[in-house]
Design brief:
- By secondary structure, this protein is an all-beta fold.
- It has four domains: 94 residues, Tailspike Protein, Chain (Beta Complex), CATH 2.170.14.10; 88 residues, no CATH class; 92 residues; 153 residues, Jelly Rolls.
- Helix content is 1%, strand content 43%.
- The protein has one helix and 34 strands.
- The strands form seven sheets. Strands 7, 8, 9, 10, 11, 12, 13, 14 and 15 form a nine-stranded mixed sheet that branches. Strands 24, 26, 27, 29, 30, 31 and 33 form a seven-stranded antiparallel sheet that branches.
- It is elongated.
- About 2% of the residues have low confidence.
């Protein structure tokens, strides 16, 4: 089965920020995916189920590869449940044959093989697995049971030297449009990237002329669309060497329906929906290691049975932070509910609860310069209901000097003792405000 979402795919909002806390829903094809969920799995054999929806992490990525059988519908929502993207018909329909292992494979660039049972014709989207006897040296065809020689192509491009190793297993799918055998996997779990010649940015660059499946875009000129693709379904990965504007709606459909301002190292996986209409996945160049290795995580802990405290209306109030969970940022510290961090570029995720205070909202404040850095989500914890809600704040920011940070919280209605959160009294620690910050750049 094809991977429909790779854990390295990053989803971003219209401002290019990771959709942390968002959800990916996979549903029945041509139906609302949120209301008609489809089983999804962590393995190609569809034996390890995954939760559906999949929660996006702080980088706007899923934690797992996602596999699904056949066609499916897709929905992407942000952390507040607002729809960012939806496609009701994606994926590849299952063939009646499934994936068929081929026998008696022979040849270098004109490969022959046999199926069991013997084929009388190629079925659209039928998949075949075979072990290469030799390493192809260029454009390659496959002929199964004498039905006919059909080109094997990778994203619409002929096989190139050193792309597929001898004794390597490949999987191909027959596409009646062409016809062509599309290379699904080979030489390991992923196809080898082939670097093509760089292309200068312009209003309509030609990204299809080279023989690579990955190429660099140079220069700062705005891109409105691309020259016509060689065929529907053609794909190529662009790597931007400079900042430029990628225009939505003039031939390119972008995530979120808005222009994207690129930065050096950003990627765009282009897909030709039609010869002159394109879509794809845009990925920011944010190294995962920055998040993995430079985290400061602090929380407000209180003993079992102790609630968060009185929440007084009328102004922003300081939320308690008293416990360091993880500190991997050199030069950072926590003191008196204030987090001190050195100069750098940061990404924050924080939240705080409120109970029976009506409207409430948190924000991240630079207490050194007394400037608001990020404003949190607007929430409501009705005074008439016995429920707690959290306000969330997230996003990227930078500070040029060592800076004191704090979480402030404002409400509409005063609530004593439990306004900052209700104790569960389960005998373990009560956790209220949660503050996580990653240093992602100097």
């Amino acid at each position: 089965m094809p991977v429909i979402i790779n854990e390295r795919t990053q989803y971003v909002d219209i401002g290019g920020k990771p959709l942390a806390g968002g959800n990916v829903f996979i549903g029945v094809a041509n139906q609302d995916p949120k209301l008609n969920l489809e089983p999804i799995f962590a393995d190609r054999g569809l034996s390890v189920p995954l939760a559906n929806p999949q929660l996006l992490n702080s980088r706007g990525q899923t934690e797992n590869k996602i596999y699904v059988a056949g066609r499916y519908s897709f929905k992407l929502e942000d952390s507040e449940g607002a729809q960012v993207e939806q496609d009701l018909d994606k994926g590849a329909a299952e063939s009646a044959q499934g994936t068929t292992g081929l026998l008696n494979v022979a040849g270098i660039n004109t490969i022959t093989a046999e199926a069991d049972p013997t084929l009388a014709a190629y079925l659209d989207k039928a998949q075949f697995a075979l072990t290469l006897v030799n390493e192809p040296t260029g454009a390659t065809t496959l002929n199964i049971d004498g039905v006919g020689a059909v080109p094997i192509k990778n994203k619409g491009i002929d096989i190139t030297p050193n792309q597929l190793p001898a004794n390597g297993i490949i999987i191909v799918a027959f596409n009646i449009i062409g016809p062509v055998f599309e290379l699904i996997s080979g030489g390991g779990d992923e196809l080898r990237p082939r670097q093509g010649a760089s292309v200068a940015s312009s209003a309509q660059p030609n990204i299809w002329a080279g023989d690579g499946n990955t190429l660099h875009i140079t220069g700062p000129n705005q891109i409105n669309t691309f020259t016509d693709a060689p065929r529907i379904g053609a794909k190529v990965t662009l790597i931007f060497d400079a900042a430029l504007r990628l225009k939505d709606g003039l031939g390119i459909t972008l995530q979120g329906g808005a222009d994207i301002l690129t930065a050096p190292g950003d990627r765009f996986e282009v897909y030709a929906d039609a010869l002159d209409a394109f879509s794809g996945i845009f990925t920011r160049n944010v190294p995962p290691s920055s998040f993995a290795k430079q985290l400061l995580h602090v929380e407000d802990h209180k003993s079992s049975g102790t609630s968060g405290g009185t929440f007084t209306q009328g102004a922003y109030r300081l939320r308690d932070l008293n416990t360091v969970i993880t500190n991997q940022i050199e030069g950072s510290s926590l003191s008196a509910s204030v987090v001190s961090v050195p100069a750098g570029i940061y990404y924050i995720e924080a939240s705080a609860p409120a109970f029976q205070v009506n409207d409430h909202k948190i924000k991240l404040q630079d207490n050194t310069a007394v400037v608001d850095l990020k404003i949190g989500s607007s929430e409501r914890a009705s005074a008439a209901d016995d429920s707690v809600t959290r306000s969330f704040v997230s996003g990227q920011f930078s500070v040029s000097v060592t800076t004191n940070l704090r979480i402030l919280h404002r409400c509409q209605l005063t609530k004593g003792t439990e306004g900052f959160g209700v104790a569960t009294s389960f005998g373990d620690t009560e956790v209220f405000t949660v503050f996580k910050i990653w240093r992602i750049g100097a």
